[in-house]
Amino acid sequence: MRVTKKPLHTVKQYHKADLDKFSDEMWRLKHDLANIDDVDEMWNHFSLGIKKSINDCVPTTVVSSKPYEEPVWFDKKCRKLVAKERQLYNKWKEKKSDTTSEALYKSKRREAKKYFNQAKRTYVESRLCKPLLEGNSKPFYRHLRGQRPKQHISLLNTDGDITDDPAVCSTILNTHFHNQFNKTHALHGQDPASHKPNCGEIEVYGVIKLLNSLKSGKAPGPDGLKKEDLTLDTEQTAGCLSLIFNKSNVTPIHKSGSKQNANNYRPISLTSIPCKLLEHIVLRNLLEKIDSWLHNRQHGFRKGLSCETQICATLHEIIGATDKNSSVHAAVLDLSKAFDRLPHALLMQKLTDIPGDRKSVV
Known about the structure:
Elements (H helix, E strand, L loop, with lengths): L7 E5 L6 H15 L5 H19 L2 E5 L11 H19 L4 H35 L4 H10 L7 E2 L5 E2 L2 H15 L23 H9 L14 H4 L3 H8 L6 E7 L10 E7 L1 H18 L16 H17 L14 H4 L2 H9 L10
Antiparallel strand pairs: 1-2, 3-4, 5-6
């Protein structure tokens, strides 16, 4: 197996960070944000400020990563066996008539192949099959994605020609996603601007709780901030995040059919970790107010309910009707791009119609 020189990359040593200095800089950053009115300006100031503080307070070191040609199961013993096998091979080539060197090389090669098969089998069983049987399919599909060659998107332009130019493809997808989005603004003669979301004041302790519950390895998003960056000082960081919000990037994901047809892609928002935190806060506040008003047959996107519970409830009704010799009629609807085409003004109107404290809902 050919092994290339290991590439070098820089990693941050968070365990050696100057926490006192970082806390002081974040405290000053929080007070600067309190004097800014524009949300976009607040986010830019926070993003640049926390990155500068991290660069100043967190030391870095240069380490070598695994060679690109190495498989994921290739461990330290595999590298030693490869090095020893190469050493014996070179020694045998120097003296081709030496049968002892040839025997030693072939013996080491058989030993290496045997261990390679064992290491690969152990990796598949412990790192892929075991989590899959326990209900965690992420490692399995992450492994599959790593085996696929990287593919670039190519789409049909307005002239019917295939293009793989990134700028042109981005324009085609952006135009398609924009056209699919529902442009309905007015509802019952009301101005949708009067229904601005307002989930009340976001408490700092709630953001701290969410920061502490973050999982390592989450995608940092377009701002480049990782979980470790946000949890160096959760109290000061939560104070900043309780004041601001941020933007997201949209990435096209292929659904089915021809990859050259823009209609076969769906937009996915790649939000940063701070955005996910605030989305969770908004969702939790909304669910506390509206969950009791949802129909008991609404199983989607509700805690404790799922597609499985919906199927069980449907089967229960069908079996009950069959036992009573009654007929069963079913109508199945599949709305194309339902989320994009649903009028947001209609959703806001339905939220305002719910009795209770409107300020905490919309």
